[in-house]
Amino acid sequence: MTISAKWRTWLLYAGVAAVVAYCLAPFYWMLVSSLRRTTDIFDTSLLPSPVSFENYRAVFDPSQGFGRALLNSLIVAGITTVLALLLATFTAYAMARLEFPFKRLVLTLIIATSMFPVVSIVVPLLKLFTNIGWINTYQAMIVPSMSFTLPLAVWNLTTFFRQMPDELEHAAMIDGCTRGQAFRKIIIPLAAPGIFTTAIITFIAAWNEFLIALSMTNKPDIQTAPVAISKFTGATTYETPFGSQMAAGVLVTIPLVIMVLLFQRRIVAGLTAGAAK
């Protein structure tokens, strides 16, 4: 390896390290702050001294209702992911296989709907849900969340289905399968990496949603984790519990990190599947 090649390699590694450090720095500081005592919360040292778990004990104080909020987040994100994935799979397959006028325009409109800022739809939805009695219900958070998760899922899966050759269905139909059976027995198993990747992305988006959940709920027993964190109270009315909020942020982030680490091979396979076809 020449000197110039070594320098390029080192520069590549340095660039990757810089990007990783930049991305992980906020999470690292959140973790360190969560392990500080309340009296040391504004300390600027890189490591907590001494290490304290009082913030984590405060998070699970019954008065905070954080355990219930985590369950609510799991319910909302889980149902949103299942519904979005179910609808997106059939829609994306139709968009990839069927020919009809203005198909490209329809697909463009689908992805364009996810680009509207959430704040622009909150007020009309709040009025609508108030009139039909949906405030403080799971569906008041699930249905609006699908307005940005479903278009994303349709776009991802349409691109994936387009990479799969039509001959797969034709061969299955020659062997006696109907188009529905070919879709269920051939296409869906082969599309599993792309579907799995889309499910992960959809779940993360629904899990982190804040504005809709904040606007559609005002009862603690129905609020999701991001909303519960924003409403943590300190020892006094005017005290902001930064330590407890940092600890809760760590607890909310850890499941996502573990999920990505466990399924990173499937995610990478889904993102790159069909690239060489």
From TrEMBL:
It is found in: Cell membrane. InterPro entries: BP-dep_ABC_trans_perm (IPR050901), MetI-like (IPR000515), MetI-like_sf (IPR035906). Gene3D superfamilies: MetI-like (1.10.3720.10). Residues 70-263 form the ABC transmembrane type-1 domain. The chain crosses the membrane at residues 12-31, 69-93, 105-126, 182-207, 242-263. Its main location: membrane. Keywords: Cell membrane, Membrane, Sugar transport, Transmembrane, Transmembrane helix, Transport. The keyword Manganese does not apply. It is a multi-pass membrane protein. Belongs to the binding-protein-dependent transport system permease family. This is Multiple sugar transport system permease protein. The lineage of its organism: Bacteria, Bacillati, Actinomycetota, Actinomycetes, Kitasatosporales.
